[in-house]
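Shipment paperwork, digital attachment
Item: protein structure file
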Amino acid sequence: MALVPRQVVSIVEPQAVLEGAGVRLIRTIASRALDYLDPFLLLDDFGSDNPDDYLAGFPMHPHRGIETVTYMLSGEIELAQAVERNYLIDADVLVGERAAMNAADVFSSSRFRALIAEARARYDVVIIDTPPVLVVPDARVVAQFADSVIYAVEWNATPKRDVIAGLRMMSDGGVRVTGLALTRIDLKKLKRYGAYAGYGTYAAQKKYGRAYYES
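Attachment content:
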């Protein structure tokens, strides 16, 4: 099989960074220059002959597979250690995990309340993503700590009866839903629907959208 020649698009210079408890290394992947790559992809070079550059080591870090939330709620690690920076969305992320503890018990605990209070003090905005409301009670429990609750519905897939049942469950639990968001919208299908009905995407593009962006 003949090799297909490839063109070098760009050359990224490695960066000297300080990680862990003070480990000096050279980072090629996971830098801001390559922030479009998967945030869990990492390429570092450890090549120092000076023990002071690496003996401090790496404290526990929230890679996938570690029960991060469980360790944090038990007091073994702090919030600052538990979060990881996602450069694709420019935000800190606390990754959930499968654990032996009952989720409803965890979210009802005083330690979780303290975590929410700490997150409020540390960040301008805190977004909590929960499992589907009809499957487990997590959303109804966590919503008690939220200033606003956005009910997410998969567009053109979630039955109307399920949407209504979920909203009723939230209401019965004393949770006021602030708004609704449609997810996984197929823009091509949405455009076809608008073209047939004479409104929607087609009308928005022709009558409102274009005028808005050109003004």
